[in-house]
From TrEMBL, chains A, B:
It is found in: Lysosome. Belongs to the glycosyl hydrolase 27 family. It is an enzyme of class 3 (hydrolase). Residues 280-361 form the Alpha galactosidase A C-terminal domain. GO terms for cellular component: lysosome. This is Alpha-galactosidase.
């Protein structure tokens, strides 16, 4: 499974959930999101009726979803537009919001219900279950979903309930049974919360980065870009760092009222392209300066890479000087594409450069493959001298998507 | 002295300070700021040469300001455009940035130098001085400025160095000698910092609000709207709460590159008009709900008032229900003007209403005087019934500035 980008819609608040999902689907379809890969519309907690039906199956709350159609109708609506539908379940007795859960004895019937509804993804939460039950339940749901024959993306909250780290969490097993997993607490719509998540993921990068790869992703939780709590610089920072982390791009904002600033960030083709790179290698923090500047790096296909210069300062834009050589790049000449300013440059590994990084902001680069060294001998004073770079070898890709 | 609104320019970073101040002055003059009252351009720390001149006078750093003109030339540049110039001094041996201070024995000569340069405001900081010196120095500078015969707004950092509260701080004395004063620590370009300041000022409102009035203002520090750290909702919240506090409106952003979103907030006529209300009464927090909604209130001239509904939540827009009666408004019918949406409404004190407040955001209202009750008797079934409001009495002002 490729990495997912989607919109997460929380239906606990509005009472007209069905219309909300349809509105979001229409926006994805009409406003250029779908083409960029934002194809999932995911229903979060609070969709279910408090009672199972006569056959013991989960059923949607009739106050929120029209009876006799419900989730299945919603899935059809998505599929008719080339979109997909995600749903939420919980492996405990109840969901976190107090709705019926899917404990061990209900896993098979609920997996089948989701498949019957033609659902495309399941987030399987962990409230009201203990470690022993989780150890049985998460693998069991994986098997049950596979047994339905329908491809259903499987998002496991399991590691988040076990502290997110070995030995309690077994990432090789997770990679075998889940497509993505929440490692850590819920994001809040605030910069503090984004920083807490960034810190935890990169402090534990030695453990977490190897766990990720195509079809198995760490999920640091939703983007809050376009909500209420982040400045434009902070929004670019979240988009950049989530792309470095190869994180699933879950939007959480209202697409009906999104500002053009937030839209431009979420629709940035280069950032999405970096996020979705086919190698699926999760990036790492490689520099932590006393000045508050940090450098993040992610290797990409075609021998390219992404760099993010991030400022944790709160005062003024900071002019950070470094070179690609200092960032451990091999000898060569590189083409640089600045993801948010869309400027390009050519840079030798040995050349010092300066990036001006806004407080709580980032500068993000796509860095091409190093141009190969060719021994174009050239002469000065009758003697052969040095080497030259072949610039054609490391051109920027013409299109990124 | 009326309340001040101005731009604070920190010259410690760029080396071409003179040009920076001239650029800001040009923006104030050309981009509609001056007409709204943003007329001061204030030089912060780092402007001075390390050496006093042969006559013992402060002199500007020749690397930053052209010799033979310097600050005086800059003041003339401002005055030619109907703007004003502010400068920075410190009552200790050194400024906070390590430049020459204005201790007790230098107060008279420096006050005269500032007046000779035709400066219009002085921020007198307190680094490298002790409580005893401050007790002498702040009143002495007040006298010295008055003695020059030039009207110079006098901003005292004194209370901030003494914890901001009685008995260490004497607000009646401050009101007599200073025009404005910093009560609390420096603001940072972050929402956390804004919240810390809001909390401190409103937790101590019983002491602080009575200290303020025309010509004597509490200064919770600069607006960081238009910098890097606040979202649009947070920016509106700072503008609204600073207006409730009758705070001097000091901008700190770069006017050359400000976004239209931030500009619209800083140039909101109604918010400025509330901030600058002639009564100069500092507002207060009147409600603190468990839901995270808080209500702030400021009495205004013409028997009007301002209300701010503030959400400290981090999740979703919150629908808050209340009535003007619950907010202790007298019986009557009120015209409401929503400061940021620019919508109007009419509300009876007894009517419940709902405001939807974004996370870390505000809804801000100008509330007209209550319409007087008139005994327009009206008849139903032959019997006289009740009363009616005379709507013409409490119309919204046609123009606010």
């Amino acid at each position: 499974m490729m990495n997912v980008i989607l919109i997460f819609v929380n239906p606990c608040f509005p009472s007209d959930s069905e219309n909300l999902f349809i509105d979001m689907a229409d926006r994805l379809f009409e406003d250029g999101w779908k083409e960029l890969g934002y194809v999932y519309v995911n229903i979060d907690d609070c969709w279910a009726s408090m009672q199972r039906d006569a056959q013991g199956r989960l059923q949607p709350d009739p106050k929120r979803y029209s009876v006799g159609g419900g989730i299945h109708k919603l899935a059809r609506y998505m599929h008719d537009r080339g979109l997909k539908l995600g749903i939420y379940g919980d492996m405990g007795t109840h969901t976190c919001g107090g709705y019926p859960g899917t404990p061990l004895d209900k896993i098979q019937i609920d997996a089948q219900t989701f498949a019957d509804w033609e659902v495309d993804m399941l987030k399987y939460d962990g409230c009201y279950s203990n470690a022993t039950e989780q150890e049985q339940g998460y693998p069991l749901m994986s098997k049950a979903l596979n047994a339905t024959g329908r491809p259903i993306g499987y998002s496991c909250s399991w590691p988040a309930y076990q502290g997110g780290l070995p030995p309690k969490v077994n990432y090789s097993q997770l990679g075998q049974i889940c497509n993505l997993w929440r490692n850590y607490g819920d994001i809040q719509d605030s910069w503090d919360s984004v920083l807490r998540i960034v810190d935890w993921f990169f402090e534990n990068q030695e453990v977490l980065a190897p766990a990720a790869g195509p079809g198995r992703w760490n999920d640091p939780d939703m983007l809050v870009v376009g909500d209420f709590g982040l400045s434009m610089d902070q929004s670019r920072a979240q988009m950049a760092l989530w792309s470095i982390m190869a994180a699933p791009l879950f939007m959480s904002n209202d697409l009906r009222t999104i500002s053009s600033g937030a839209r431009n960030i979420l629709q940035n083709k280069m950032a999405i392209s970096i996020n979705q790179d086919v190698l699926g290698i999760q990036g790492q923090r490689i520099v932590k300066e006393k000045s508050g500047i940090e450098v993040y790096w992610r290797p990409l296909s075609n021998n390219a890479s992404a760099l993010v210069f991030f400022s944790r300062r709160n005062d003024m834009p900071y002019r950070y000087t470094t070179s690609l050589r200092k960032l451990k790049y091999p000898t060569g000449s590189y083409k640089i594409f600045d993801v948010f300013s869309e400027k390009t440059a050519t840079l030798k590994d040995s050349s010092d450069f300066v990036v001006s990084v806004n407080p709580t902001g980032v500068v993000m680069w796509y860095v091409s493959a190093p141009g190969k060294l060719h021994f174009h001998k050239f002469f000065r004073g009758g003697k052969p001298r040095g080497t030259e770079y072949d610039a054609a070898e490391n051109a920027l890709p013409y299109a990124f998507l």
